[in-house]
């Protein structure tokens, strides 16, 4: 069994708290991704699970056993480093065999294990080469192979794709997804700052910010029902637009009069008495569309970026405030400099009061989450674990 | 006092002479090919072809005069008799082969060659690894490095006091004999104990060179990517296994450079033997033997030069290998 349980885990260097109150349950066989801005402690948390950093508070259990003081090699984990961390003086085969040699396995066992890993990762022709004679992608595969031969219960990945170029990153990402599919009972924890990797690989994403967990959930859950403005803006690219305003009518459909002059009807319930509170209406750029009728927002297009499949419109780039961005499908020539009216569906909008989503008012999301589109894939562990 | 002013004026002439040469010659060059006017580009190109030679010139001249010329002169002398008046061909070399003292020197040099680089590198490596992990490691490092600042002659004098002998019953002023008598042993004349006295001399050089090895190896150890060590820890390696199977192999190139550099120092060893035993009691080495024939008693330039040539031939291949290795490391 390889379920992980982090209870009130904390890390401090002297007086500086890097992480605190980390509570997380990871089920056996889950693919968990830690994301967050630089310096949020996601790599530190991974290294604490690995045993490379001391846990200064709380407990870490793997498979029901307390691991705080167990040496890294006995935790049943293997780690893949961002810089590959291959032993430069050993051949590919010796790199993969090192852990097995230390463990005192027989020559035949080692040979069999390295052969199998080599075949699995298409490294067979390179087994007798030194790492310096390999390309970046091959080196990363050797690093993964070094983890596989030990057959650990838990795989830890520390930004494994950051040193690869864009095309290779996509290819290796798919390889990692396939690797996980071939080992359904192995738990994987993956640290990245790339949200595409997080969205495509994860069963559940853990968003870390400011030394704590901001939200845990399935990728689309974080995308569709972010708990805070931070998560809302961190997941999705370009980031979600936030338009400030005041609640003018409550009920199942909340009406917000925006400071910019527009009106928003948001399908998030508010209570009687909420009239007049300050809120931010969140709209993802891709949910915005042009309209002739009542608009959320009207403005002059300062800049367009035509990407072919979509066109990005930037409003208010000159001013002090954060620019509003809209993403329209297809090609829209000649929009630059024109005034455009934009709106969005009530169900696609978010409502934040003092940084927190009004969906999660009493700590519980109402109504319970179900993916918006019927075709959305099923996500293991999609239930809320963050109370 | 006269000597003092002579020294001061020599230094002044040397330093200001250098400044005057580099400044003056470059000014002349710029005057001949001014970097302006209609032909500026052409002039700059010509000037930058000549300029390196202005800087290299003095070094080439003096290295040629004091290093290259003496090599050929030694070769010439080694093929002549004691005062250089008669050509004897390989006579001096044939003499050396049959000479007992020369054989003893060769043997001792080989012994030094095996023991000193190995011990100095080993102790340096251990010191580098251990001091890296200690809070007061830097103080330890300074202490271990300090002998490097002492001249070989100075070190020889210091260690002669450590091995100093007084008759039994008298107060022992030598550290080693003091310890031995305290432990109830008899005082020994350490430097006459054949063949151990050779090792007593070698310890002095090991003591000096360990600091050098430690500094270079410490830098190399710090250059090892931390992740490879962490990966080894995750792979289950013990600290000793990490050290011998991950760290040492990664700095093998540096270890080789340190080893060969010390080897060259060892082959040339002279001062320590000269000060401590002067080659008596079976401790003779090539450099001291050369000095004996060259300058002691009735000088025999032929034999002295022949020994010098042998020494050079021994050092050269190691030197070439060392330079190649160092270049490879630098890349």
Shape of chain B: globular
Gross geometry of chain A: elongated
Total number of domains of chain B? 2
Superfamily at the CATH H level of the largest domain in chain A? P-loop containing nucleotide triphosphate hydrolases
Give start-end ranges of low-pLDDT stretches of chain B: none
Q: From the coordinates shown, what is the CATH architecture of the largest domain in chain A?
A: 3-Layer(aba) Sandwich
Top-tier CATH class of the largest domain in chain B: Mainly Alpha
Number of strands of chain A: 21
Tell me the distance between the termini of chain A: 25 Å
Task: Count every helix of chain A, treating DSSP H or I runs of 4 or more residues as helices.
Answer: 8
Mean pLDDT of chain A: 86
Strand order of the largest sheet of chain A: 6-7-8-3-9-10
Helix content of chain A: 10-25%
H/E element sequence of chain A: EEEHEEEHHHEHEHEEHHEEEEEEEEEEE
Helix content of chain B: over 70%
Family (chain B): Belongs to the binding-protein-dependent transport system permease family.
Subcellular location (chain B): Cell membrane
Keywords (chain B): Cell membrane, Membrane, Transmembrane, Transmembrane helix, Transport
Membrane topology (chain B): Multi-pass membrane protein
């Amino acid at each position: 069994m390889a379920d992980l349980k982090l209870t009130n885990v904390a890390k401090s260097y002297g007086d500086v708290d890097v992480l605190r109150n980390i509570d997380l349950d990871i089920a056996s066989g889950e693919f968990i991704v830690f994301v967050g801005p630089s310096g949020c402690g996601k790599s530190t948390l991974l290294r604490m699970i690995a045993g490379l950093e001391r846990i200064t508070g709380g407990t870490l259990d793997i498979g029901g056993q307390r691991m705080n003081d167990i040496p890294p090699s006995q935790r049943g984990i293997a780690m893949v480093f961002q810089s590959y961390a291959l032993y430069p003086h050993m051949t590919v085969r010796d790199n993969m065999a090192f852990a097995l040699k230390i463990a005192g396995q027989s020559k035949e066992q080692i040979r069999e294990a390295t052969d199998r890993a080599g075949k699995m990762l298409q490294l067979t022709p390179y087994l007798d080469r030194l790492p310096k004679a390999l390309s970046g992608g091959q080196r990363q595969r050797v690093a993964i192979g070094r983890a596989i031969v030990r057959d650990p219960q838990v795989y830890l990945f520390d930004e494994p794709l950051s040193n690869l170029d864009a095309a290779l990153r996509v290819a290796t990402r798919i390889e990692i997804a396939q690797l996980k599919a071939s080992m359904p009972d192995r738990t994987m924890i993956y640290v990245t700052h790339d949200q595409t990797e997080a969205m495509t690989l994860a069963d559940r994403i853990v968003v870390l910010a400011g030394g704590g967990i901001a939200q845990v959930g399935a990728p689309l859950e974080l995308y569709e029902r972010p708990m805070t403005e931070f998560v809302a803006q961190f997941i999705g690219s370009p980031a979600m637009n936030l338009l400030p305003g005041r609640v003018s009518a409550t009920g199942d459909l909340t009406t917000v009069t925006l400071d910019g002059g527009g009106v928003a009807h948001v399908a998030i319930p508010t209570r009687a008495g909420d009239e007049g509170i300050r809120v931010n209406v969140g709209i993802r750029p891709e949910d915005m569309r042009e309209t002739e009728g009542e608009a959320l927002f009207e403005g002059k297009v300062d800049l367009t970026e035509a990407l072919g499949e979509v066109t990005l419109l930037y409003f208010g780039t000159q001013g002090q405030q954060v620019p509003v961005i809209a993403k329209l499908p297809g090609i829209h020539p000649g929009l630059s400099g024109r005034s455009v009216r934009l709106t969005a569906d009530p169900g696609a909008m978010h409502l934040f009061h003092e940084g927190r989503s009004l969906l999660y008012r009493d700590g519980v999301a109402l109504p319970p989450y179900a993916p918006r589109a019927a075709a959305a894939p099923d996500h293991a562990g999609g239930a809320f674990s963050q109370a | 006092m006269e000597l003092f002013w002579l020294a001061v004026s020599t230094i002044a002439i040397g330093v200001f002479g250098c400044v005057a040469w580099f400044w003056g010659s470059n000014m002349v060059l710029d005057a001949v090919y001014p970097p302006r006017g209609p032909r500026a580009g052409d002039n700059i190109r010509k000037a930058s072809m000549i300029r390196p030679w202005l800087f290299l010139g003095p070094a080439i001249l003096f290295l040629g005069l004091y290093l290259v010329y003496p090599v050929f002169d030694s070769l010439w002398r080694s093929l002549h008799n004691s005062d250089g008046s008669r050509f004897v061909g390989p006579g001096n070399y044939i003499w050396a082969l049959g000479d007992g003292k020369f054989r003893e020197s060769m043997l001792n040099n080989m012994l030094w060659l095996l023991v000193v680089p190995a011990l100095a590198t080993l102790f340096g490596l251990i010191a580098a690894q251990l001091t890296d992990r200690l809070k007061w490691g830097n103080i330890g490092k300074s202490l271990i490095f300090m002998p490097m600042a002492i001249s070989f002659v100075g070190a020889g004098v210091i260690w002669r006091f450590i091995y100093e002998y007084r008759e039994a019953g008298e107060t022992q002023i030598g550290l080693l004999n003091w310890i031995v008598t305290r432990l109830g042993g008899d005082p020994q004349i350490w430097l006459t104990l054949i063949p151990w006295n050779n090792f007593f001399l070698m310890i002095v050089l090991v003591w000096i060179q360990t600091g050098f090895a430690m500094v270079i190896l410490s830098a190399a150890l710090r250059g090892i990517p931390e992740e490879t060590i962490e990966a080894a820890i995750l792979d289950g390696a013990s600290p000793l296994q990490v050290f011998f199977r991950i760290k040492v192999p990664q700095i093998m190139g540096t270890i080789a450079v340190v080893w060969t550099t010390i080897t060259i120092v060892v082959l040339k060893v002279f001062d320590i033997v000269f000060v401590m035993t002067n080659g008596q009691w079976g401790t003779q080495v090539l450099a001291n033997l050369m000095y004996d024939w060259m300058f002691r008693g009735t000088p025999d330039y032929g034999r002295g030069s022949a020994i010098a040539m042998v020494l050079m031939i021994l050092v050269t291949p190691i030197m070439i290998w060392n330079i190649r290795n160092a270049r490879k490391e630098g890349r």
